[in-house]
């Protein structure tokens, strides 16, 4: 199965592919020539329409995965899943909005079915997922409390330090730790979904619906 992955760094994309393959129970192939590399949220949301068009018209990709960090933005809630419940301050809701708008604009192509999409929100950053199983204090509910100005045990900076040993890892270091963490995580997917029910849970549920 050919699946394109759009995220905030190439290390994250490698880790996400390991997790994706565990959810799917099979190997996937990437799209070698994705025209736009995305770095950071503003870039992901901006290139997403172009990526969807490119994949549909120019490749035989069957699916697209998009995972972004929430940083300090609104955390996705199950109430956003209700009809008219989408919150446009929530990045997952914004991604869903763009995907639903753009996919309805794609013209049918003979022999091509509609591209499958799975969207996830790492709260507050994908390093929080990487720490699942090693630090039980790191979870979506804790971060939601922090957004309400409560004191919690971690910040975005300490998450990076805990995963990489430094706040500013080189890409090589990031790749090594991210892929190692993902290989551990695939044994803890139900715990990951329990601790990150909205941001990771949405991604896992989308993949199961493919
Ligand atoms: Zn939302």
List keywords for this structure.
210 residues, binds zinc ion, mainly alpha, 49% helix, 9 helices, 3 strands, 3-stranded parallel beta sheet
In short:
The protein is mainly alpha-helical and 210 residues long. It is built from nine helices and three strands, in the order E-H-H-E-H-E-H-H-H-H-H-H.
Account of the 3D structure:
- This protein has 210 residues and is mainly α.
- The chain has one domain.
- 49% of the residues lie in helices and 9% in strands.
- The protein is built from nine helices and three strands; from the N terminus they run E-H-H-E-H-E-H-H-H-H-H-H.
- It has a three-stranded parallel β-sheet, with helices on both faces.
- Helix 2 (41-58) runs parallel beside helix 3.
- The chain is globular, with a radius of gyration of 17 Å.
- The mean pLDDT is 94.
- Residues 76, 80, 87, 90, 92-93 line the site of zinc ion.
List the helices and strands and how they pair.
Layout: E1 3-6, H1 10-24, H2 41-58, E2 63-69, H3 91-105, E3 116-122, H4 126-130, H5 140-147, H6 156-164, H7 171-185, H8 189-195, H9 199-208
Parallel strand pairs: 1-2, 2-3
The structure holds zinc ion (ZN).
The bound ligands are:
zinc ion
Radius of gyration from the alpha-carbon trace, in angstroms: 17 Å
**Which whole number gives the mean pLDDT?**
94
- Structural class from helices and strands? mainly alpha
- Biggest sheet architecture: 3 strands, parallel
Proportion of helical residues: 40-55%
Tally of helical runs: 9
The number of E-state strands comes to: 3
| Strand ordering within the main sheet | 1-2-3
Between the first and last Cα atoms, what is the distance in angstroms? 11 Å
SS strand fraction: 5-15%
């Amino acid at each position: 199965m050919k699946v394109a992955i759009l995220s905030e760094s190439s290390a994250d994309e490698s880790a996400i592919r390991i997790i994706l393959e565990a959810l799917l129970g099979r190997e996937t192939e990437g799209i070698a020539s994705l025209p736009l590399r995305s770095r950071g949220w503003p870039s992901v949301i901006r290139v997403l329409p172009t990526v969807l068009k490119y994949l549909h018209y120019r490749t035989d990709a069957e699916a697209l995965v998009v995972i972004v960090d929430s940083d300090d933005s609104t955390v996705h809630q199950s109430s956003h899943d209700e009809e008219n419940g989408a919150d446009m301050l929530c990045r997952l809701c914004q991604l869903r909005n763009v995907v639903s708008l753009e996919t309805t604009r794609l013209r049918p192509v003979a022999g091509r079915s509609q591209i499958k999409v799975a969207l996830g929100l790492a709260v507050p950053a994908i390093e929080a997922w990487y720490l699942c199983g090693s630090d039980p204090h790191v979870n979506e509910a804790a971060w939601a409390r922090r957004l309400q100005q409560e004191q919690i045990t971690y910040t975005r900076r300490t998450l990076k330090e805990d995963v990489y040993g430094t706040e500013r890892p080189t890409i090589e270091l990031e790749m090594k730790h991210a892929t190692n963490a993902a290989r551990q995580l695939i044994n803890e997917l139900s715990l990951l979904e329990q601790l990150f029910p909205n941001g990771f849970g949405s991604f896992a549920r989308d993949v199961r619906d493919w």
